[in-house]
Specification:
There is one protein chain. This protein is of the alpha/beta class. The protein has 3 domains: 211 residues, Rhodopsin 7-helix transmembrane proteins (Rhopdopsin 7-helix transmembrane proteins); 150 residues, Alpha-Beta Plaits, CATH 3.30.70; 203 residues, EAL domain (TIM Barrel, Alpha-Beta Barrel), CATH 3.20.20. The chain is built from 26 helices and 19 strands. It has an 8-stranded mixed β-barrel, surrounded by 6 helices. β17, α25 and β18 form a beta-alpha-beta unit. The longest helix is centred in the first third of the chain and has 34 residues.
Length: 647
């Protein structure tokens, strides 16, 4: 029988190219890389000896049985090893080797052991192959065992790929499934066309695809530090989380690195980075080093051996207490380490990347092991920030209203609009928590616009003037005032709802007014020219400089509740003479300066009576009403108006 070895010869050259490419790129550090190299070498040897076997079998009388048996045995052994090697490659690629028990590993080796034993004992049994009376190479009954075992390994590999498909990128998933297909379909073709030797060629093409899509060093190695890059790190973490593999990560940060960048230059600092990365990469053979960018590194340990982890961290801290050398430069880099365990400490990629990318202690000057609890606050801020973004996108913020009582006319004079945020997961989030975060990331501009429009809509749709509501107070942030289009956006909304600027009173806190005077003065002046009025909120909360009051057109001063509560304790009713004197004197002074006064935090009748005695203009607090949703607010002022008419 004449065999077509053209495809085998092509497989030899494809395998040679693949092996050369791997060694040229030096991409064989990880266990899965080494297994892949073994897989390629097995395919190469199998291709070579399949070709030789064809020629040797054709010239049996010239070469003798010894040569024939040798070439056939080598081909069969390495050809069968390939499927087992691929299974090991998948297991280590997914990093699930630490999840598999030793007994399971032993069971997985049984098929390959039986295949190899069948091949090695063939000289005595002739059950795998033999030469018939016409000296023609003939398959024995156990040849089917070899194919069955190979198919078992391929199907187990396919099962693992499908089970943990979420741990793979789309291209990796397609490549691995394609490889399994390329290994199985040619078997069927060869069954019908036994002289067409295409198995190994298709296998080599599949391995070439894996080389360029999964094992390609250019995609996974950082150009500067020559260790695994950020993309590789994210893939490894995503894989660990998806496969529920336990993993210990040592995050390494160099807080002073950017400072040295400006002093000795980027080129020299890149040299230092390369030296540091090379040293970290050589620490322990079982630990992989990743460059996470932003001068952050990470070491991944799948053994989760606390003793080994402590030894590694101690070694790193000791090393970084001494200077590093590069190009005659010597620099000591303080290092900050943090140990993170998956899934004990974090269970999502987002949580881990937040910790990885967030500076531990930006101005740290000493090497130290940082407690993971340090990140609880950062984690909370990140969660709240996402809630703010979601609330803006879904328009799920709520605007509540707290009535403000006119002491002279004894009626609801106006109300303050107060923003509320309720999240399905985090529940109620205080404005004191989410407003500073919104200011920091710039979302406050959109948040402020949302509140302003909600107030305009409420005022128009419910015709608040008929209830005697003169205006609604809306808080104004300093960050909003930095927006050059603030006045324009407010004017557009007033026109949209056919309102005058006098229907809105803008509140500015004392702390904001005191610390950002020029920014506020410019913005407030522009708004004032367009008819807006202003109130100073939280007066007396700690800022005693009066210059901001004189430089801005405030018509209302709102006394902070701390002044009233110091004078009359809302829980015990206890009075403080000096605090009462301070309260009265402050109100008298502000009245003489022609300011209207609102006192916040009024909760008891005794507090109300004292304020009436001091001729307070307006009162705001729980005594009259807590902040309430808009529907309840409309209901409240409706009922109040009915009661007024009846009396």
């Amino acid at each position: 029988m004449l065999y077509n070895v053209d495809f085998d010869i092509c497989a030899v050259f494809v395998s040679i190219f693949t092996i050369f490419f791997i060694f040229f790129n030096k991409g064989i550090k990880k266990t899965e890389n080494k297994i892949f190299l073994c897989l390629i070498i097995s395919a190469f040897i199998a291709s070579v000896f399949d070709t030789l076997t064809t020629y040797v079998n054709a010239y049996i009388f010239k070469n003798g049985y010894t040569y024939m048996d040798f070439t056939n045995y080598v081909f069969l052994i390495f050809h069968n090893i390939s499927s087992y090697s691929f299974l090991l490659y998948i297991i280590y690629l997914m990093h699930i080797n630490y999840k598999i028990k030793k007994l399971t590993f032993y069971i997985l080796t049984l098929p390959i052991i039986t295949s190899v034993l069948a091949i090695l004992t063939n000289p005595f049994t002739h059950l795998v192959y033999y030469f018939n009376k016409n000296n023609i190479y003939t398959h024995g009954p156990l040849i089917h065992l070899l194919y069955i075992n190979a198919i078992i390994y391929l199907f187990i590999s396919l099962g693992i790929i499908i089970k943990y498909r979420h741990a793979l990128s789309k291209i990796k998933l397609i490549t691995l499934i394609t490889f399994v297909i390329l290994c199985t379909i040619p078997v069927g073709i060869q069954f019908f066309y036994p002289t067409l030797l295409i198995e190994l060629f298709f296998q080599s093409i599949g391995l070439l695809g894996i080389l360029f899509s999964i094992e390609n060093k250019d995609d996974i190695i950082d150009n500067v530090t020559h260790v695994y890059n950020r993309y590789s790190f994210i893939s490894a973490i995503d894989s660990a989380i998806s496969t529920r593999t336990s993993l210990t990560i040592i995050v390494i940060k160099l807080p002073s690195f950017n400072y040295h960048n400006s002093t000795v230059g980027i080129k020299n600092m890149n040299g230092f980075l390369t030296e540091i990365a090379a040293w970290l990469n050589s620490l322990v053979s079982s630990v992989d080093c990743y460059d996470c960018e932003h001068i952050h590194f990470a070491l991944l340990n799948y053994k989760n051996d606390d003793t080994e982890i402590k030894k590694i961290t101690d070694t790193i801290l000791d090393k970084f207490n001494h200077s590093w050398s590069y190009n005659d430069l010597r620099i000591i880099f303080p290092v900050q380490l943090c140990i993170i365990k998956i899934p004990e400490n974090v269970n999502t990629l987002e949580q881990l990347m937040f910790i990885t990318d967030t500076p531990f202690k930006p101005n740290g000057t000493e090497s130290e092991l940082v407690d993971l609890n340090t990140f609880n606050e950062y984690k909370r801020k990140a969660e709240v920030e996402k809630c703010v973004e979601k609330a803006l996108a879904n328009k799920s913020f709520q605007v509540w209203y707290q009535p403000i009582w006119d002491c002279v006319q004894e009626k609801v004079y106006c109300a303050e609009a107060l923003l509320r945020l309720f999240d399905d997961e985090l529940g109620f989030i205080s404005p004191d928590e989410f407003i500073p975060i919104a200011e920091k990331n710039g979302a406050i501009v959109d948040v402020g616009k949302f509140v302003f429009e909600e107030v305009c809509k409420l005022y128009t749709e419910n015709n608040l003037q008929k209830f005697g509501i003169k205006f609604i107070e809306v808080n104004l942030s300093v960050v909003q005032c930095m927006n050059k289009k603030l006045t324009e956006s407010f004017e557009d909304l007033l026109k949209k709802y056919n309102l005058k600027a006098s229907c809105i009173n803008l509140e500015i806190t004392e702390s904001a007014a005191a610390s950002n005077q020029q920014t506020l003065i410019n913005s407030v002046s522009d708004l004032n020219k367009h008819g807006f009025r202003f109130a100073l909120d939280d007066y007396g909360s700690g800022y005693s400089n009066f210059s901001y009051m004189f430089g801005m057109p405030f018509s209302i001063i709102k006394l902070d509740k701390s002044i009233l509560w110091s004078a009359i304790d809302p829980k015990t009713g206890e009075k403080d003479k000096n605090a009462l004197l301070y309260l009265e004197s402050t109100m008298n002074m502000l009245k003489k300066m022609n300011y209207k006064i609102v006192v916040e935090g009024v909760e008891t009748e005794e507090q109300k009576d004292i304020l009436n005695e001091y001729h307070c203009d307006y009162i705001q607090g729980y005594y009259y009403s807590k902040p309430i949703p808009k529907d309840e607010f409309i209901k409240l002022i409706n009922e109040y108006c009915k009661d007024k008419k009846q009396t």
